[in-house]
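Final report, closing paragraph on structural work. Over the funding period we assembled a curated collection of sequence-structure pairs, and we close with a single example.
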Amino acid sequence: MTTEETALTSREELNTELKALLRRAYNNGVDVEGGWECRNGSEHPDWDVIVTEVQKNEDSE
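Its predicted structure, as stored:
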């Protein structure tokens, strides 16, 4: 599968992309909870990503 890179310019756009990624993974049977190291070579910083499920509230979409 190939993906086109979308220019993200705000936290809201990043949140939208993360939600879409997590939903696709979840819908395809991937256990999305846990932690991942994202190593990005010398040109970009590395990140540690942790995903945890949270309880829905009444205002949740």
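The beta strands are 34-38, 47-51. The chain has a mean pLDDT of 90. We thank the funder for supporting this effort.
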